[in-house]
Amino acid sequence: MEQQQRLPWWKSAVVYQVYPRSFQDTNGDGIGDIQGIINRLDYLQDLGINAIWLSPVCRSSQKDNGYDVSDYRDIDDIFGTIDDMDRLIAAAKERDIRIILDLVLNHTSDQHPWFQQALQGKDNPYHDYYVFRDGKEGVLPANTGTATFGGPMWTFVPELGQYYFHQFASCQPDLNWENPEVRAEIYRMMNWWIDKGVGGFRFDVIDQIAKEPDKGVTFNGSRLHEYLLEMNEKTFGGKDLLTVGEAWGADVDAARRYSNPNGSEFSMVFQFSHMWLDAKEGGSKWDAAPLRFVELKKVFSQLQDALYNTGWNSLFWNNHDLPRAVSRFGNDKEYRVESAKMLAILLHGLQGTPFIYQGEELGMTNVRLRKEQVRDIEAVNVLVSRAQEGFSEEEILDGLYRKGRDNARTPMQWTSGPNAGFTTGTPWIDLNPNYTEINAERQQHDPDSVFATYRTLIRLRRAHAVFVTGKYEPIDLENPALFLYTRTDETHRLWVLCNFTKDVQTLPVSPQGMLLISNYADETPDTLRPYEAKMILEQR
Ligand code: TEU
Ligand code: CA
């Protein structure tokens, strides 16, 4: 059995995502940089994390903040140099922190030399690196629907009499994975990074690489897993690396296949079913609906069950594309601290590898932006497209406040001083004005802070094997207010008890054992107060 073998490091690890642009600026240009991450490694070590998922730092046109790469083997000037990157990898290693590189392999920037070459002519060797189709202006080669950032997925190049395919913005042309040279080139690049000592990879929109646009297929193309098996074999397979694929199109079965413990594909995937439960069914993320809470529990429970001993889960509430968890699933007003801690306790008790997004450990919140303050390429497009659909500016901005990606991208709140200690210059995106209240300086040494809760949770995971291996069992799944579960191994049972509401709730169970963590100072054994959460460890 897998459990008996030595577990890979990433099964007991906690990963912290850094969005470098918004983390720490050191040269006053208002943009976070690699030196800034190096300067903050002590903070991350204090928190206790084992790896950093670093959002893209490679050379880029920065239209989508690095998710539009123009050189996979160099660092963008705004972030520093390749020497800075080597120093980051080494400095992190000294603190037992591994650097997980974010690879954007579905598409490049239109400024990438490959694409520039490809535009030179149909017989250019790089032409087949991308997905071109002959056509007439105004008549799309295939019906593939709307691109993620608006408009069609095809852009016409008059000089070639051809369209090129892009699932995201037109400045992000899709790579042609059917071309073996493309794949070989990518694997060489990945091995170059492995030789540099990275601790693994996060793969951007990996389930969209095997597109078959002529058939209208974007996600889960028929050759997807063939490519992944090949990539694994040619690059990270058999090495001690954490690999996580971003897979919006993955269901439970797909998540299991990707994370097969035989190691043939990835360590795990990001699976997003819990991110659709506060939108209208079948609608877009902008069509808000009340959270389907019981469904949320069922989604987690299903994954916990299905992947037990046959795969591995990633655990997350947040990333650089998602609104702030405390604003979305908690209560960022009267119960900000309690509910941020509750969400942390709930997630970190589950089986899988937890991912913390920068600022989440402080309980950072969503931010109301004025139109001029909007920065994200998606949001900029939404301001136009939703206005055309008839929504008022207020409605659109309200949608962005609830779901926009800029919420996650306001600068990290280090101090209550100027610009929250993020920059001495003008920040590229405005700060959330609540930094005077919510900041690392205030929380790092406060035992009652959200930060302290995260730090404790990370240490608990390391101290008690049941966090890593215990079998999940939900309690009272239909309960409309409480999220309750146990994790059980041969020697222990961990109880995780969470109140998702601002009302006092009666507990249907009365577990005995040692209180490991809670978000209230005292105890009431039979009830859970507003957003109360606790973990109890029982000896078996
Ligand atoms: O995101 C994939 C993606 O489609 C969504 O996360 C997207 O941000 C959201 O659904 C829009 O509504 C990845 C990256 O995480 C994201 O930052 C990039 O913009 C995108 O790919 C393109 O590389
Ligand atoms: Ca800078």
Q: What order do the helices and strands come in, and which of them pair?
A:
Elements: E1 15-18, H1 34-39, H2 41-47, E2 51-54, E3 58-60, E4 69-75, H3 82-94, E5 98-103, H4 113-118, E6 132-134, E7 154-157, E8 162-165, H5 180-195, E9 200-203, H6 224-234, E10 242-247, H7 252-258, E11 268-271, H8 293-307, E12 314-315, H9 325-328, H10 336-348, E13 353-357, H11 377-388, H12 393-403, H13 440-443, H14 450-463, H15 466-469, E14 471-475, E15 482-488, E16 492-499, E17 505-506, E18 514-518, E19 527-528, E20 533-539
Parallel strand pairs: 1-2, 1-13, 2-5, 5-9, 9-10, 10-11, 12-13
Antiparallel strand pairs: 3-4, 6-8, 7-8, 14-15, 15-16, 16-20, 17-19, 18-20
The structure holds 1-O-alpha-D-glucopyranosyl-D-fructose (TEU) and calcium ion.
Observed structural traits:
5-stranded antiparallel sheet, 15 helices, globular, binds 1-O-alpha-D-glucopyranosyl-D-fructose
Overview of this protein structure:
This protein has 540 residues and is an alpha/beta fold. It is built from 15 helices and 20 strands. The strands form five sheets. The protein has an eight-stranded parallel sheet with strand order 11-10-9-5-2-1-13-12, with helices on one face. A five-stranded antiparallel sheet has the order 14-15-16-20-18. A hairpin with a 3-residue loop joins β15 and β16. The two termini are 22 Å apart. Calcium ion (CA) binds at residues 25-27, 29, 31, 33.
